[in-house]
Amino acid sequence: MIKFYKMDENLRVVETEEFERRCWVDMINPTDDEVDDVKEWSGIPEEMLKAALDEEESARVDTDDGATMYVVDSPMMVDTDEGDSYTTIPVAIIYNTKCIVTVSLNPDPVLAGFRSNRNRVSTLKPVGFVLHFLLENAKRFSSLLKQIDKKSLRLQAELHRSMRNQELIELLGLQNSLVYFSTSLSANSSLYGRFSRMEAVQSNPDYQDMYDDVLIETKQATEMCHIYRDILKTTMDAFSSVISNNVNNVVKRLTIITILIAIPTLIGGLFGMNIDLPFGMGYHDGGFAWEFWVIVGLSVALTVICGVLIARMTDSVKIRTPKVKKRKRRRD
Questions:
Q1: Which of 125, 166, 201, 326 is the most exposed place for a label (fewest CB within 10 A)?
Q2: In whole angstroms, what is the distance from residue 174 CA to residue 177 CA?
Q3: The sheet that has 23-28: what strands, in order across it?
Q4: Are 258 and 310 part of one and the same domain?
Q5: For the stretch 230-261, what's the b/e string if a residue is b when 16 or more beta carbons lie within 10 angstroms of its beta carbon?
Q6: Coil, helix or strand for 56?
Q7: pLDDT value at position 321?
Q8: Are residues 200 and 93 part of one domain?
């Protein structure tokens, strides 16, 4: 899809029907024919126009045939069947003396703000256009990072109430998103050195101030990303320990139950063998079958004794904190 925008007499971005000199060409997942048309109108090489169509394209700067290209990683929130997920996509901003061209695989929220004039830009000033995009893109990173933090706190609160797989899977997805954001912010930071050496930035105080704002916003977003990622990693490790501890407790209970059940089974098996029993058991003429109740009583008694011993043994290996020891001394 291709759309054309230009500046009107009120210095607002408005859509136009066809290509004009000093306009802004917005390309979203363009076809090969559309790329060829823009190449013919603008004179920008085809390699630059197709650079951002590769999802794995990294942030970089390139100059060729009088055109300058900035590929920037832009954050996005994507709706999936498992909920909202966060990722980044490459966005290319290319300009020469004829026009400004932006290329992306999906609609970019920052460029949408330019189209709606929510963020005022000028298609007549390519360097200012790029700086505006970098600034709003860094703010977009900070905004989505705050959303990730709020979602992480909500999921942690739900996990405190019930340990379900769904919340753990969503936390893992947020952790992956923070890795993508951290990598993208580092890649974007590598572009900023180019601006500090540009004559257009050095000679224009407004551009210099905007460039400083870009550095500050990116640094804040990077620090936020590192903090949230460390917190989330610690949280995931803690919940993994809790889950492992719960599994150990379940296994311990099942083991105790298995041992206690094995005692009457063993006794019943010994007395159920097809052999002569000691003490005259099993030989009586129509009298009371006392042997059965002896075996049952013996089984119950041994099971209770083993249960008490196991309970004391498991209680003795519990970790006693100083607070617990102090409470015990008070009771004594």
A1: 326
A2: 5
A3: 13-16, 2-7, 23-28, 99-104, 83-95, 67-80, 60-64
A4: yes
A5: eebeebeeebeeeeeeeeeeeeeeeeeeeebe
A6: coil
A7: 46
A8: yes
* b/e 278-300 (16+ beta carbons within 10 angstroms → b): eeeeeeeeeeeeebeeebeeebe
Helix, strand or coil for residue 76?
Answer: strand
Note whether 175 and 253 are same-domain residues.
Answer: no
The length of the chain, given as a count of residues: 332
Number of structural domains found in the chain: 2
Q: What pTM was estimated for this model as a whole? A: 0.75
Q: Are residues 208 and 256 in the same domain?
A: no
Determine contact, residues 5/115, Cβ cutoff 8 Å.
Answer: yes
Taking the C-alpha atoms of residue 242 and residue 229, their distance in angstroms, rounded to an integer, is 20
CB count in 10 Å sphere of residue 206: 11
CATH number at residue 98: 3.30.460.20
What pLDDT, in 10s, does the model give residues 78-99? Answer: 877 666 788 899 999 999 888 9
